[in-house]
Amino acid sequence: MVQTLQISEFSLASIPPASKWQGWIHLGELPAGEQVRWPVLVVRGRRPGKVLLATAGTHGDEYEGMAAIHQFYRQLKVDELSGTLLAIPMLNPPAVTGGTRDGVWDHRNLSRVFPGDPKGLFTERIAAIYATHILPLADLAIDFHAAGTGAHLRPFLGTYIGDSPVVETQRQAVIAFGAEVIWATGYLPGRIMGAIYDAQVPGMYAEATGNRLCRPQDVEHYVQGLGNLMRFLGNLPGNYPTDPPRFYREDSSGRAGHVQSQHRAQRGGLFHPEVKLWDRVEVGQLLGYVHDPFGNVLEEICAELSGRLIVLRVCPRILPGEFAATIVPFEE
User: Fold this and answer.
1) Residues in the chain with pLDDT values less than 50
2) Quick one: pLDDT at residue 260?
3) pTM of the entire structure?
4) What is the pLDDT of residue 320?
5) Which DSSP letter does residue 17 get?
6) Fewer CB within 10 Å: N-end or C-end of the chain?
7) In what order do the strands lie in the sheet with 297-302?
8) Are strands 140-144 and 47-55 parallel, antiparallel or unpaired?
9) Could you state, in order of their start, the residue ranges of all structural domains in the chain?
């Protein structure tokens, strides 16, 4: 029978070396008394070493990271391993239950409420438990995401740059993951990456295609990346990438990292793109039209800067204020 523990009872030291463990951590109860619990996976190697913390399900409609953590846990061999994998594949259970970006009970976005509040709304409590009890256990942390519902995203790896002493380790770690695209940005308050940065734990977040597809190639990319991070930490034998990919950008400007802040529609209607994901576009170029119910053009949405289309809306329905596309000005 799988154990259910209170957060105060959970300890990596209580799990024997050379073993795998899975169990629940109790987070609280919903209004009708249903338990909310984290599923937790731990693999401890035969030899001591560092702790890789991997999380997914921060948003409940992003499935690639959940699948990758499950697969990596199954295939990881304790005899080859030093150190520990600590993984929570569904960090926001109320959002995963609803298949939604936000928690179904308080409608809060977990990656906007950090460091959380132990006496706040349920999503804020989850953030506080993670920041207070889980994050301090890590030597390196990664949080898996995807484009979510209604958009496609060119897979990339992100991290924060700034004055923290962990930044140089982060630069090496994001390259070690093996992503073809890296977009490092400035600090954004409220994000899970901000909590990782504040804790001075080297960290990163990963993005996949999304729109509920959970493509096998995206899951496999995440699995390979987890293996590379374990090798980077010295927990597994073997090599990992050390050279930056062609598409590598560090940008601490105010809008960098705000994926949903660019190219917002002023009118609601149906969005018809005139470009494709990952196209190179120039400032002023037409990205697409917003049509009214009769098919008439209400609005033209044009590129606000030059660069690569890293996110593109694929759900035609668009409301006023919703984004249509995101461009990153990679130097080529």
Assistant:
1) none
2) 75
3) 0.95
4) 96
5) S
6) N
7) 297-302, 286-291, 269-273, 317-318
8) parallel
9) 3-251, 260-328
